[in-house]
Amino acid sequence: MALSREELEVIERGLGRPPSEVELALFRSHWSEHCSYKSTRMWLRRLPSRAPWVVRGPGTDAPLVEIAEGLFVTFKIESHNHPSAIDPYNGAATGVGGIIRDILTVEARPVALLVNLHFGPLDHPHARWIASNVVRGISDYGNRVGVPVVGGETWFDEDFTYTPIVLATCVGVVEKGKVPPGGVETGDLIVVAGLGADKSGLGGSAFASKTLREESEEDLGAVQVADPLMGKKLIDLVQEAVGCVKFIKDLGGGGLATALAELAEWFGLGVEAELDKIHMSDREMGPAEVLSSETQERLVFVVSPQGLDCLKSLLEKYEVPYSVMGRFVKSGRVRLLWRGEVVGDVPVWLAAKAPEMVWPRESYEPPPLPEIPEPPIDKAVELVLSSPNVAVKEAIYRRFDFDVGVRTAVKPGEGDAAVLKLYERGNLGIVVKGDANPRYAYLDPRLGAANAFVKAYRNVAVAGGVPKAAVDSINVGSPARPAVYWQFVEAVEGLKEAAEALGVPIVGGKVSLYNEYGDRPIKPTVAVVVLGVIDDVSTALRALWRDGDGVYLWGFTRGEVGGSEYLYRVHRLVAGRPPSVDYAAERRIVEEVQRWRGRLTGAKDVGVGGLAAALAKMAVASGVGADVDVCKAPTDVGRLDYLLFSESNGRFVAAGEEGPGVKIGVAGGDRLVLRCGSTQLFSRSVDGLKELMSLGL
């Protein structure tokens, strides 16, 4: 992506001369939107990131959250939208590989992956091609490196037919004493390890900072190529590198241009790098290409001269190619050499930070909710339950190895969130879930972002966890569009409001701009991944009931169908206002579940598709039916369709001999029967429900 005229003027003033070809390559990569956050970082600074348990927040490759004395969890989210639109298999696979390497930078053991995926309708051939290959890319990479894919969320909407949103989150665990100490000094060495540099992924960050158009297939060379075998070697190598290295950095977006600029800035030093010393797969590359190449499966290690032999022995043990190609100096400059000649010499202050850009904003009013007729209830239930957004995603998660590593206590499809056992501390576990709703975010970006946060928070709570931290990913179109930039800013404000009200700091995140196809931006997609702690994984709650259990509903149902799955599936409308958020009610759910945990058979939150979808999913997951009087639910609405399909927050279904809230039914038999008093509204066998709610991929 070309630098703007104003940016070129800033560069020339800072250098006191026109930049060289290699220096231009550095600025094009590191000043790209993807790396510099030049249009967004002034807003992201507003997000709360501090708490007593947050050891390291945003700003480096991976945060650290202390969940037990001396035990840290790290988790990070990454987007790989543009690459996945062009080459879905490698785009998705390299997204997974990149986020794993971020976790390796704190010498953590990667223990889980989650994926938030947004595709076009599966009856569209192109959308289906993207979806199938994205799932295959994630599956192949995760399975081969031995990191389980334990959860996520999948959404289907016409906006993502040509522009998918592909988000990967990695979770890692590390003991306090294993984290690289930092303390980088003058004379310390820069070692690049992993695959040899080539032209795959060349200029990938600049590519991710522009709008996709029909001719974008010529950008195929900007898509990186995955190598899970090398990825696995790096995982194993890093686990043994304790004591050898001072610091580790992923060599990903922006390539060496970003890595060198960030390392120099973080440690307040200069760097001197001999670009020709880099090991290459393509020996025809010049210095500008080496600097901006985004070849995958590479890490940067910072070692003292005394620690070099220790690192070399590990690299040779695992047969990982490496180059000692640079060192830290006092100069305060990024100095680049090629065959002994200086080809770039840039002050760190200039290289490190692209000038901030604030774009015009323009709000809009979404379509109001019109008067809609009440449909036949049985037909409406069938339409909502058969929606791909409500469907059981077994066709996707069965492609993943979610048991590798033997930590997964609650598996995909079993509960509202993934639960992982931390053998480092007995039965202690973590609970993690990601959520997004593009319809909500389109209708009201601020409220939509808050909804994503509280939904992920509630999923973690209902599974038995106490939420501790979050990461987010905001995906929108071009910031040059005033309505899009308004969407972004409003989304940040919604996240800020939710994080502060719930007491859950946002410790990292990712922004992806220019998600458009042709002249059409996507619906804003705000994903939030919440991580919680559970003291005993054996008491985690699955979305199950047993024959004879009472079925209980906690929370109040309002007539909130704006942006709902019901409104779209039955009436083909995207209109109205998303559900309101009562943060005190969400916090009470944490308290209530903790009070009942150990006495319930299972629980499930009420979300997309409303109460009808929650009950149907519990029946399918349990293999047991239920007889439920939905009119016993606490509500202020008089319409049965609103009662069944409202997506009001602050609710969950619980099952057991006793339970929280109001008893609305009893589990048992092989049919799910929904009624209002003595009037039957819907009845379907559990096997029939499973067929109705199966996703065909």
From TrEMBL:
Domain PurM-like C-terminal: from-to ranges: 186-338, 547-654
Residues binding Mg(2+) 1, per UniProt: 78
A GO molecular-function annotation: phosphoribosylformylglycinamidine synthase activity
Catalytic activity: N(2)-formyl-N(1)-(5-phospho-beta-D-ribosyl)glycinamide + L-glutamine + ATP + H2O = 2-formamido-N(1)-(5-O-phospho-beta-D-ribosyl)acetamidine + L-glutamate + ADP + phosphate + H(+)
Localization terms from the record: Cytoplasm
Record's keyword terms, sorted: ATP-binding, Cytoplasm, Ligase, Magnesium, Metal-binding, Nucleotide-binding, Purine biosynthesis
InterPro entries in UniProt: PRibForGlyAmidine_synth_PurL, PurL_linker, PurM-like_C_dom, PurM-like_C_sf, PurM-like_N, PurM-like_N_sf
GO BP terms: 'de novo' IMP biosynthetic process
Catalytic site positions: 34, 80
SUPFAM superfamilies reported for this sequence: PurM C-terminal domain-like, PurM N-terminal domain-like
Residues the entry annotates as binding substrate: 79-82, 101, 224, 512
Enzyme class: ligase
Binding site for Mg(2+) 2: 102, 250
All copies of domain Phosphoribosylformylglycinamidine synthase linker, residue ranges: 1-38
A GO cellular-component term linked to this record: cytoplasm
Oligomeric form and interacting partners: Monomer. Part of the FGAM synthase complex composed of 1 PurL, 1 PurQ and 2 PurS subunits.
Function: Part of the phosphoribosylformylglycinamidine synthase complex involved in the purines biosynthetic pathway. Catalyzes the ATP-dependent conversion of formylglycinamide ribonucleotide (FGAR) and glutamine to yield formylglycinamidine ribonucleotide (FGAM) and glutamate. The FGAM synthase complex is composed of three subunits. PurQ produces an ammonia molecule by converting glutamine to glutamate. PurL transfers the ammonia molecule to FGAR to form FGAM in an ATP-dependent manner.
The protein's name in its UniProt record: Phosphoribosylformylglycinamidine synthase subunit PurL
Organism, as annotated: Pyrobaculum oguniense (strain DSM 13380 / JCM 10595 / TE7)
Name of the gene encoding the protein in the UniProt record: purL
